[in-house]
Design goal:
By secondary structure, the chain is mainly alpha-helical. About 65% of the residues lie in helices and about 0% in strands. The chain has 18 helices and no strands. Helix 3 packs antiparallel against helix 4. The radius of gyration is 24 Å and the shape is elongated.
Length: about 350
């Protein structure tokens, strides 16, 4: 069973913690629809020192629009004024600017400084970002205890990313004693907010009986919810469930469909399993060339794929192997193009 992350026995649940990134989305204040001349009124209030108006004016400059050209440096100027008045939302957004290098040079330490100011005012996204800074040693020294502290504070405010990461900490004993039941508790809180990584990991817990009784039917339901959000680890797990008939009626065609979706998102485990199906004709017509190509992609991180390549090569002609190399290049280009197109601006 492919899991979200993996240095433990069933390839358990840590890689996404390592790969998780800051939630650095700009948070927008809304101009009052009652204003008859919003921009002029807003600027006047901002120049008088009103912190909320300064933050809104910063939003306006950050986004740009009719009557106001986008200007990230000017946005930072007004954010700084509002942040200096201890407005948490402005402190968070100023931290985001330093983290992303928007309107200022990138500076992780300065980003963490402003995240801390907002976090101490109980701003959950800033608390989460501060926890990730302690986790990765970006702008702060690595400190697992501090990481867990700030995740917990954000998680207590129902911030799904923090709940998920806190679950990972409990699953792997990072900054807290290892506790599978506590991990499930936090995964569930995030999963019920439709967090796909948490849904996938909760499915793994049900599949493997970690922190909950084994229940493959329940596992499939959580895999499906995450897979339908295009989450590749869950797509791989759902595909494998269909191929093996675990928690759902065996349907190899349906299994291959989900394995392919994950493989096309460059998940090596799914590429290997899709290659196995292609090599054996399970759920799809047998195709050694296609199987060879997918396993060449998977072999960069899946040891079993290298062994399968050796077995395939013994059954293939030199022409087929050459075609497999060519197809590997085509698949790599297709995957890179797809991943690039899926990146949100």
């Amino acid at each position: 069973m492919n899991v979200t992350s993996a240095p433990t026995r069933a390839l358990l649940i840590v890689a996404l913690l390592c790969a998780a990134s800051f939630v650095l989305f700009w948070t927008h204040s809304q101009l009052s629809v009652a204003d008859t001349n919003p921009l002029a009124i807003l600027r006047a209030e901002a120049e008088k020192g009103d912190a909320q108006a300064q933050s809104k004016l910063a939003d306006a400059y950050f986004l740009g629009g009719p009557g106001l050209a986008k200007n990230e440096a000017e946005s930072v100027k007004w954010l700084r004024k509002a942040a200096a008045q201890n407005l948490a939302n402005a402190q968070l957004n100023l931290g985001n600017c330093y983290w992303n290098g928007q309107g200022v040079e990138k500076n992780a330490a300065e980003a963490m400084k402003w995240y801390r100011k907002a976090a101490e005012q109980n701003e959950p996204q800033a608390q989460y970002n501060l926890g990730v800074g302690y986790r990765d040693g970006q702008g702060l020294p690595q400190d697992e205890g501090q990481k867990v502290k700030w995740y917990r504070r954000a998680a207590a405010q129902n911030y799904a990313d923090a709940q998920y990461n806190l679950g990972v900490c409990y699953a792997n004993g990072q900054g807290v004693a290892k506790d599978a039941r506590e991990a499930v508790k936090w995964y569930r809180k995030a999963a019920e907010q439709n967090h796909p990584a948490a849904q996938s990991n909760l499915g793994v817990c049900y599949h493997d009986g970690q922190g909950v009784p084994t229940n493959c039917v329940e596992a499939v339901e959580w895999f499906r919810r995450a897979a339908e959000q295009n989450y590749p680890q869950a797509q791989c797990n759902l595909g494998e469930s269909y191929v093996r008939g675990q928690g759902v009626a065996t349907d190899e065609v349906e299994g291959v469909k989900w394995l392919r979706k994950a493989a096309e998102q460059d998940l090596a485990a799914a590429q290997f399993k899709l290659g196995l199906c292609l090599a054996s004709g399970r759920g799809v017509a047998r195709d050694y060339v296609e199987a060879y190509a997918w396993n060449r992609l998977a072999a960069r991180s899946v040891e079993s794929a290298t062994r399968l390549l050796d077995d395939l090569a013994k059954a293939m002609s030199p022409e087929q192997i050459a075609a497999g190399y060519k197809r590997t290049k085509e698949l790599r280009a297709e995957i890179e193009a797809k991943l690039k197109s899926d990146v949100k601006p």
